[in-house]
Amino acid sequence: FILASIPGLEAAQSWMAIPLCCAYVLALAGNGAVLLVVRTEPSLHAPMYFFLCMLATIDLALATATVPRILAFYWFGTREIGFGACLLQMFLIHTLSAVESTVLLAMAVDRYVAICHPLRHAAILTNAATAKIGLLAMARGVLFFLPLPLLLLPLPFCGSRVLSHSFCLHQDVMNLACANTTPSVVYGLTAILLVMGLDAILICLSYLLILKAVLSLAAWRERLKVFSTCIAHICVVLAFYVPLIGLSVVHRFGRDLAPLVHIIMGNIYILVPAVLNPIIYGVRTKQIQRRILSLIHI
């Protein structure tokens, strides 16, 4: 396949790769710092921070599966990507996104239990239960999204091989096939709805229950104090789902949009969560702030 270039700006792509590279380095540094801080700070050895480590690992893997290939294209002009490599990249992107969605749901449940059933929190969300949730999230992502490349594998591609992004996505590759893609369309939509769609509904339900518990408190100051523990997670959920929905809308309704829109939305989808997540939790979590500052001073 041929990766999408920025129309009319091919000569400037090497310069436009610089902010992309800076964002990638920032994602590596931020998520790496989160992993280091949680590992070296015993007070952070709790389910919420273990989930945060899972999120950081996923973001590192997702960015590393895509950004270096994009930078190689922008800087060295290597637009071609092999069929097998494209399917592998597509599988990693969709699987890791599904795992991240599941982890975000687990974090919402953690906030629900901590606020609505605080006395049972330690008994329900043990370290062993947290590890099992992480393994279940990975297995769920693999099982749901492994069929996507398998459904594309036997299809013929006899027309244009130019993708609409600088990396491989299922919808993008599927649209280039010159055969009946109905099974792939139906399964892809079903997988998205049963994973990201269901997770989004359950996250909203968790926060409705949290909101109900918070509003039952007598004092406004106490309500704000309790709900403030959820602000970081809400921001991370928005950083994940808003680009995901935006990219889906562009794929579904934006065929007449400029190619630049597709490329920008794709890059936002890959990099925004990876860059913002450690910043959000770094700003909102005092223990992480203090530990990072102490490491910088050292």
Automatic annotation (TrEMBL):
One of its GO terms (biological process) is cellular response to lipid. GO terms for cellular component: plasma membrane. It is a multi-pass membrane protein. One of its GO terms (molecular function) is G protein-coupled receptor activity. It is found in: Cell membrane; Membrane. InterPro entries: GPCR_Rhodpsn, GPCR_Rhodpsn_7TM, Olfact_rcpt, OR51/52/56-like. The keyword rRNA processing does not apply. Residues 30-281 form the G-protein coupled receptors family 1 profile domain. PROSITE patterns: G_PROTEIN_RECEP_F1_1, G_PROTEIN_RECEP_F1_2. It comes from the Eukaryota. The keyword Transmembrane helix applies. The chain crosses the membrane at residues 15-37, 49-75, 81-109, 121-146, 185-210, 231-254, 260-283. Keywords: Cell membrane, G-protein coupled receptor, Membrane, Olfaction, Receptor, Sensory transduction, Transducer, Transmembrane, Transmembrane helix. Belongs to the G-protein coupled receptor 1 family. This is Olfactory receptor. The lineage of its organism: Eukaryota, Metazoa, Chordata, Craniata, Vertebrata.
